[in-house]
Write a structure and sequence with these properties.
- This protein is of the alpha/beta class.
- It folds into two domains: about 190 residues, Rossmann fold, CATH 3.40.50; about 130 residues, Rossmann fold.
- Helix content is about 35%, strand content about 20%.
- Helix 1 runs parallel beside helix 7, helix 3 packs parallel to helix 4 and helix 8 packs across helix 12.
- It is globular and about 60 Å long.
- This is Pyruvate dehydrogenase E1 component subunit beta.
- Its cofactor is thiamine diphosphate.
Length: about 325
């Protein structure tokens, strides 16, 4: 039996969380305002009403306490899903994530599992104030013991959150907040169908002129750039990384060996970032296939600016196309 529904990313996450809670009574949701309010982005809307306050818990404003409590719950056999309200609020919980959550499975030689999901709305483009638009994913991708993923579409949102919850190791689940309720990104999903594997890189548009690799909110930018480039006679292949740690770069290597050029795209600052790692690995594995250096299109190496300036900070279609032209003119 099929159950086709056309969903935004936000609604897909809500239904994915609901299905996980229906299938496993050990799944709990916890975070600031996730209960009665349904979260500031309404991703958990209606879940406390249907599952009760014992399974959808409104917490104090204390990220270290949220993560620390989740660690304890995981030790006792629960599968907590923590929401960090905005990505800039995650740093009070950084010690718990890096020193406890990431290490307990290894430290106990596998005796203690850490099935904890940390949902992180991230990225800019919503006109918010300081600490509400950062892209800290590279910091967590650097920590062994954590799986770091980032969705870009409703299909991966629905199936990915369920797969993250079923993982026996901790998952940081980065969600592009400005795309939560985008009607243009609605996708038809068989919510009762066979799960779609979500934690590997995926070619989302085929091309031959150059490769553009992106993740999270930048995937839409890459696809828009590819559509614009087609009008100029250029064929861009777009790859959605989906998993940021461990990186699945096999499809990227294969694509670069075909196109000879790579543009790495991300909202995060460029220095010591995921785009840095991608550039280094591609140079190492595809050196003799490259027709030009790997180029990166990123946010700037500054704190995220006030909302009036964010359109100049965020990588856009024009910056991607300019990088493609630079690569082709090398």
């Amino acid at each position: 039996m099929t159950d086709l529904q056309k969903l935004t990313i936000g609604k897909a996450l809500n239904l994915g969380l609901r299905r996980a809670m229906e299938e496993d009574p050990k799944v709990l949701i916890m975070g600031e305002d996730v209960g009665k309010l349904g979260g500031v982005f309404r991703i958990t809307d209606g879940l406390q009403k249907d599952f009760g306050e014992q399974r959808v818990l409104d917490t104090p404003l204390a990220e270290s306490g949220i993560i620390g409590t989740a660690v304890g719950l995981a030790v006792r056999g629960f599968r907590p899903v923590c929401e960090i309200q905005f990505e800039g609020f995650i740093f009070p919980g950084f010690d718990q994530i890096s020193s406890q959550l990431a290490k307990l499975h290894y430290r106990t030689q596998g005796k203690i599992k850490m099935p904890v999901v940390i949902r992180v709305p991230f990225g800019g483009g919503i006109g918010a104030v300081e600490h509400h638009s950062e892209s800290p994913e590279s910091l967590f991708a650097h920590i062994p013991g954590l799986k770091v993923v980032s969705i870009s579409n409703a299909v991966d949102a629905y199936w990915g959150i369920q797969q993250a919850i079923k993982s026996d190791d901790p998952v940081l689940f980065f969600e592009p907040k400005r795309l939560y309720h985008s009607g243009a990104l609605r996708a038809e999903i068989d919510v009762a169908g066979t799960p779609v594997p979500c934690f590997s890189s995926q070619v989302v548009r085929e091309g031959t002129t150059a490769t553009v690799v992106a993740y999270g909110p930048s995937v839409k930018v890459a696809l828009d750039a590819a559509a614009a480039a087609e009008d100029e006679g250029k064929s861009l292949e777009v790859i959605d990384l989906r998993t940021l740690s461990p990186l699945d770069l096999g499809p990227v290597f294969e694509s670069v060996r075909k196109t000879g050029r790579l543009i790495a795209l991300s909202e995060a600052p460029s220095e010591s970032s995921l785009t840095s790692e991608i550039a280094a690995r591609v140079q190492q594995e595809c050196f003799y296939s490259l027709e030009a250096p790997v180029l990166r299109v990123t946010g700037f190496d500054t704190p995220y600016p006030p909302a009036k300036l964010e359109e100049h900070y965020l990588p856009d279609l024009d910056r991607v196309l300019h990088a493609v032209d630079r690569s082709l003119n090398w």
